[in-house]
Amino acid sequence: MRVVITIILLTLILFSCKETPIDDEYKRAIEKYRKEKDSLFIYDENSPFKRDTTIKFTGLKYFDINPDFVFKSKLYKYAIPETVIVLGTKGEERLQIKYGFFQFTYKGQSYKINAYKYPDASIKDGKEYLRNYLAVWFRDLTTGDETYEVGRYLEIEPESPDPDYLYTLDFNKAYNPYCAYTPLYSCAIPREEDFIRLRVTAGEKKYHQK
């Protein structure tokens, strides 16, 4: 009887540790996304590699596609959004509104990640789309090792008027800000509370290897 119970437990453990199979359509979509980004960095006049001719583009580096790092979450707005100082990589101070947060569960553990918004006073004419923009950045246990030492950013849909809307948190699309490629740019540094105590082995890796 003990042998049977042991076999059952081992089977359950093995199945629980299996990674989610990669859907072919999703895999093709991520591969297409990555190829388009490479193309943009090569040809677009606004590419950091066009602006800084001292650096050579050799292709962005990524973790393997991992569907276990795709989550859905509502936006949980803070009752009283706080205006906070976010430092840039050149030492400048930026004002951002700590607007809300997203929640996700990975391997039974719950995590949260903040969403920031631009103060109205900082939104210039022609940039009105930024009113609904949700800025999300983070550091994690790969930061400074496999991934950029400042941190990474995450693409999120614009804020929805539906309070029950489920946003997609796809860490396979986690990306480096432009300051990861050249010091000509300054980017927002994730704050101490934007650290996720988890190895987020998805998305973009370091570009420059020291």
What this model shows, in words?
Helices cover 19% and strands 22% of the residues. It starts with a helix and ends in a 40-residue tail after the last strand. It has a domain at 57-194. A hairpin with a 5-residue loop joins strand 2 and strand 3 (93-106). It is globular, with a radius of gyration of 19 Å. The chain is α+β, with helices and mostly antiparallel strands and 210 residues long. It has helices at 2-17, 24-43, 48-51, and strands at residues 70-73, 76-87, 93-106, 109-117, 137-138, 152-153, 167-170. Mean pLDDT is 90; it is low at 3-18. The strands form three sheets. Strands 2-3-4 form a three-stranded antiparallel β-sheet, with no helix packed on it. A two-stranded antiparallel sheet has the order 1-7.
Helix share, percent: 10-25%
Give the strand order of the largest sheet, numbering strands 1, 2, ... along the chain.
2-3-4
Beta content: 15-25%
What's the Cα radius of gyration?
19 Å
- Average pLDDT level: 90
Low-confidence stretches: 3-18
